[in-house]
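Late entry, evening session. Most of the bench is empty. Finally got around to the prediction I had been postponing all week. Sequence below, unchanged from the version circulated by S.P.
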Amino acid sequence: MQTQSDIRGQISGFVSLIVLLLLVMALSFVAIGALSLVGAMSLNVLERTKEIGILRVIGSSHRHIAGIMVVEGANTCTKYTRSIPEEAPNCKSESI
């Protein structure tokens, strides 16, 4: 027969396991999101090579161009995270 403290120990172990699994899932989601953003920004830089070259020719510094890319990355990330609820399949939208 198990005592109350044994049962609490087992429940605590199960809860700790679930918390650990959720933490691993959250970290994997963050890693996947970061890789997606890096991929999108890499494509952005490749597509804008000529524009970046023109900026360098007219005197922009590496820091200025990197700042532009960081702002665009933040904008892309913000735009993506704000659009998720609107594109969810169960959301009902009114159409005229």
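Two things to note before I forget:
The chain is about 80% helix and 0% strand.
The radius of gyration is 24 Å.
Will write this up properly tomorrow.
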